[in-house]
């Protein structure tokens, strides 16, 4: 079956523009995560959905960041009024929680460059 | 304070040697531990997970967990140049689905 897909793969935005990043999780995976990965660092948690419910958004760095998953499948991460410090790779991961099994499967990421 | 610590490296080993990658974590309540491999420009890929103290072997990979000392390690036997990548340790806090990732250790296997 298909893995996690993300689009666009690359996005260049001028400072102040709004961007929307899309994630298609593995079919049937109820859990979906967004991460931000800066160069040379590990992924940093942004937000977590279980089905359509956003259960944790504690990692969103500011109120310019917003995520949704209205039908419990595709998710969109939106960044308003982008700033240069938003430049990073945005990773989406999905998982299907089972007993003691929280393995996450990552998409290819969207590389955002804010100029 | 970072909850999951890894030496950023690079760790350089010759082909055929054993590569040893280490990770320490701060939350004593953590119950599951994951190792991801990330090639340059690619996304992380899960390669090992471990829940119980001791060793877990899968092919050339062995994960070792010591909860008392709060460290988890990954051994790669018979290292190959294709193993050259960044290895990320991920540890969910106790009771959480959300892992905290270390910054990763860069491994270079030279022929």
Question: Could you describe the 3D structure shown?
Answer:
The complex is a heterodimer of chains A (115) and B (111). Chain A contains no helices and eleven strands. In chain A, a hairpin with a 2-residue loop joins strand 5 (44-50) and strand 6 (53-56). Chain A is mainly β. Helices cover 0% and strands 48% of the residues of chain A. Chain B is mainly β and 111 residues long. Helix content of chain B is 0%, strand content 53%. Chain B is built from no helices and eleven strands. In chain B, the strands form two sheets. In chain B, strands 2, 4, 5, 9, 10 and 11 form a six-stranded mixed beta sheet that branches. Chain B has a five-stranded antiparallel beta sheet with strand order 1-3-8-7-6, with no helix packed on it. Chain B starts with a strand and ends with a strand. The mean pLDDT of chain B is 93. The A-B interface holds A 31, 33, 35, 40-45, 48, 56, 91, 95, 97, 100-109 and B 4, 6, 8, 31-32, 34, 42-46, 49, 51, 88, 90, 92, 97-104.
Number of helices of chain A: 0
Biggest interface = A-B, 24 and 24 residues
Largest sheet of chain B: 6 strands, mixed
- β-strand amount of chain B: over 45%
**Overall 3D shape of chain B:** globular
Strand content of chain A: over 45%
Structure summary, number of beta strands of chain B: 11
Mean pLDDT of chain A: 93
**Average of the residue pLDDT scores of chain B:** 93
Task: State the end-to-end distance of chain A.
Answer: 37 Å
Structural class determined from secondary elements of chain A: mainly beta
Q: What's the arrangement of secondary structure elements?
A:
The complex is a heterodimer of chains A (115) and B (111).
Chain A: E1 5-7, E2 10-13, E3 19-24, E4 31-37, E5 44-50, E6 53-56, E7 65-68, E8 75-79, E9 88-95, E10 105-106, E11 110-114
Parallel strand pairs in A: 2-11
Antiparallel strand pairs in A: 1-3, 3-8, 4-5, 4-9, 5-6, 7-8, 9-10, 9-11
Chain B: E1 4-5, E2 11-14, E3 19-25, E4 33-38, E5 45-50, E6 54-58, E7 61-66, E8 71-76, E9 85-92, E10 99-101, E11 105-110
Parallel strand pairs in B: 2-11
Antiparallel strand pairs in B: 1-3, 3-8, 4-5, 4-9, 6-7, 7-8, 9-10, 9-11
